[in-house]
Amino acid sequence: MAKKGENKTEKRLAASKVIPLHRKAYTWNVKAKPGPHKKRNSVALGFVLRDLIGITKNMKETKRVLTAGRILVDGKIVKDNRLPVGLFDIITIVPEEKTYRVLFSKKGKIIVLEEDKHSGEKICKVVGKKVVSKELIQLATNDGRSFNEKSNKAAVGDSLLVQVPKQKILKVIKLEPGKVALVVDGTHMGEVANIKEITPGTMTRPKLVLLEAGESQFKTVESNIVVVGDSKPLIRVE
Question: To 10 degrees, the CA torsion angle through 43, 46, 52, 56?
């Protein structure tokens, strides 16, 4: 008889390439459950606390810390060690009041860097937009959020500077030449570059973006970048 339900185990050899782990050191990995981030670009919160931040030595200690309500993700208490966390998520440890931001390294691995001060702002990329009523427009973002706005000039591909956990949009960052973008996939993953030119896509061809980083220029598809600021990033991105 076939198994029913979710398989909660995952071998390290099958883990996403963005997770910085020694694949042959141990057999098993902490498997992230389905959630706001895609599996290929996220990591389980338990792995972050134990292996990246290092506040616990094993998963038993990690679960104890989570159960005590000491861990906040984007300002909200989280008690699930398998919650997927991804790009720009803010992890806060209380009562120490230490804050960390999830980023990508230039080697394409997830890293967690401590913030100098408590930050309640993150950038979310708009991946969907639709009219839900005569008065409301719904924006969907890459981290599973949705915003119902009476009017909003944001389009798919633009970014939002969001205050968490209030879920308040502070600024819309348009996808257009002159803006600063972070490459989140592909050969140049982890690089910050200026947008020079945008080639519109078609039904069969994705939108292409010409980027400039230092003295080099390169092209990538629009889905591989996140706009992070006008002349400079609005939050820490590297």
Answer: 180
Structure tokens at 37: 């981030």
Q: What does pTM read for this prediction?
A: 0.90
CA–CA dist 124, 121 (Å, integer): 10
Could you tell me if 164 and 90 are in contact, meaning their C-beta atoms sit under 8 angstroms apart?
A: yes
Distance CA 36, CA 60 (A): 25
Q: CB 75: neighbour CB atoms within 10 A?
A: 15
> Encoding tokens for residue 118?
């408590």
CA gap 75, 71 in Å, rounded: 9
The per-residue DSSP string of 171-212 comes to EEE--STT-EEEE-SSTTTT-EEEEEEEE---SSS--EEEEE
**Strand pairing category for 192-199 and 180-183:** antiparallel
Residue 144 clears pLDDT 70, i.e. is over it: yes
- H-only helix segments in 48-179: 59-67
**Using 50, 70 and 90 to split pLDDT, how confident is the model at 20?**
confident
Average pLDDT over residues 124-130: 96
Contact criterion met (CB below 8 Å) for 184 and 87: yes
**Tokens 């895609």 — which residue?**
38
Confidence band for 107, pLDDT divided at 50, 70 and 90: confident
Is pLDDT larger for residue 107 or for residue 209? Answer: 209
